[in-house]
Amino acid sequence: MLYPIILAGGAGTRLWPVSRTALPKQFIEFFPGQGTLFEATLNRLSGLSDLGPPMIVCGEEQRFLVAETLRRLNIEGASILLEPVGRNTAPAIALAAQFLRANDPTAKLLVLPADHVIENTAAFKQTIVDALPLLEQDWLVTFGIVPGHPETGYGYLRRGENIAGSSGNAVAQFVEKPDRETAQEYLDAGDYFWNSGMFLFTAECYLSELADYAPDIHESCQRAFASLEQDQDFSRIALADFANCRSESIDYAVMEKTARAAMLALDAGWNDLGSWDAVWDHAAKDEDNNVIQGDVLSSNTRSSFIQAQSRLVTALGISDTIVVETPDAVLVADRNEVQNVKALVEQLQQHKRKEKDFHSLVYRPWGSFESLAQGNGYQVKHIVVNPDSAISLQRHQHRSEHWTVVKGSALVHCDGKDFALEENESTFIPLGSMHRLSNPGKVPVEIIEVQVGDYLGEDDIERFEDLYGR
Fold it and tell me: Which of 45, 193, 393, 423 lies deepest, with the highest CB count within 10 Å?
């Protein structure tokens, strides 16, 4: 059976300020009507024969985003494997391979990043079907993207000799990201392809090659897998058994060393959306070669990407520019500089700015909250609690809270007492009180929360009970 392994961790920092740690790019709908990138990755697998349920590998921060997407798409039987810390692709795939091999010794693995765009789904699936016979000969297959221009932002594969009786070729060489002149030489040569980061192999073959070429990673993952814990819908890897594992990509750990690396060319409208320029390149453009999203007015503007999320954005006399407006941050960049957005995110980290990780609208497993206003000693939030959901039983050491219901009917627990709170009714949660807000109804509950205190950070939460295992 063929099992998709979807790698859904990562923060997508080059697409800040839209992509952030708490809501990374794979869970964002960049193109209206097309769903999130993660949804598209799952949906394009439909129709493949002998397909098993997917396994999603992600971090703690993404686990409820993954679970909610699977629920919404009615995908049953999926596994969610939680990494306590990111250790790149080689260990992530090793853990997934061990998990699946334990239940199916002949498991075939299709490894896919969760954040790619593939326009021609039929061509994508046919290439996978063409590659499957290579697994019978213990090849580790990767997919080389047919290049459309001399790209300096990707690594390359050089195609070697044809593998007899198949549609595949041996990989002659893995090549690092080239300069512009070298990339043009690769394009002209015709036997160089972009490295897609997608793979197809058996669990047994991958683990065997990993043991040969990266035995320390193999051993670390064996120890971690031996202590795997099942927690409701999630399989958890213990931090103590995984933290010392070497961080390494599958390319460096295995594919560049093995003699069993094969490739098939893939020409299916692929884009990894690795930067805002890539988003501009993929999106539909107007007569001035602009991509305009949201409330935008422009004049004498060419070849630019302008997105407005919360207010009017105007542009005059610019070209080759990226403008991305969110409720709490704005990015303005030359299109030729967007690969360096990561450096700005590093500055946010150095200055301990919350905008690095969180939007003003923050999703939680029970719903969401949005900061509407804040100042010295106070903060106002709009909180939404989904039906049959509840925040944790908690208390705060530095703030009191005042709740007013503006929609729905809430159930409040405060210091041992339970009572209903209807629309236009309010209650006060004193500092240090044990409290919880629940929604037993069938429609979302919305409240306005006013916090008052000397510290209003999200880490001022002491949890006692939680439906979501936080």
Answer: 193
- Which two three-digit tokens encode residue 254? 């295995």
Alpha carbon 438 to its chain's center: 29
Q: Which residues contact 204 (CB under 8 A, 6 or more apart)?
A: 101, 105, 106, 107
Query: Cα(14)–Cα(28) distance, rounded to whole angstroms?
Result: 14
Residue 181 φ then ψ, to 5°: -65, -45
pTM of the model: 0.87
| 220-229 core/surface letters (b: 16 or more CB in 10 A; e: else) | bbeebbeebe
Decide: helix, strand or coil at residue 153.
Answer: coil
Q: Report pLDDT digits (tens) over 334-393.
A: 999 998 999 999 999 999 998 999 898 988 889 999 999 999 999 999 999 999 999 999
What 3-state class would DSSP assign to 124?
Answer: helix
3 state DSSP class of 339: helix
Environment class of 269 (CB within 10 Å of its CB; exposed 0-12, middle 13-18, buried 19+): middle
Contacts 24+ apart (CB under 8 A), 29-32: 30/273, 30/279, 30/283, 31/282, 31/283, 32/293
Is there a contact between 190 and 158 (Cβ–Cβ < 8 Å)?
no
Q: What is the largest CA-CA distance in the chain?
A: 75
Identify the bridge partners of residue 145 per DSSP, sorted by sequence position.
194, 266
